[in-house]
Specification:
The chain contains 7 helices and 3 strands, in the order ααβαβαβααα. By secondary structure, the protein is α+β, with helices and mostly antiparallel strands. The longest helix is centred in the C-terminal third of the chain and has 19 residues.
Length: 127
Amino acid sequence: MAYIVKEADFRAMAAHVLDSLPDEFRNRMANVVVVVEDYPSEDDAESAGVPREGLFGLFHGISRFEQEWCGGATGQLPERIVLYKRNIESACFTKEDLLEEIRLTVLHEIGHYFGLSEEDMEKYEKG
């Protein structure tokens, strides 16, 4: 059974995860927002190559690596990391499960923001 919380509680958990990120990430994050939506759109799931119900998060934007390589992108809208609340909840049975899945999803999407490989992200996700 899914572990369901109020949206405000879910956002608070996500904020806690962001606050506890390693300094090497937090100090270099700029112009990025984390938003919460219930479910991904069909287009977002298709673009990620994941079934709609299996997509927990998605990074929208230009990676930090690409921005630095191109000399930055001033005046640009923020990059977005989207957390899909209902999909994440559906995979969890306890509050601890939910917090861990939010942590893993945030780390994975931040990895995309920084242009990390899947292997690099796995190293941080285990931490």
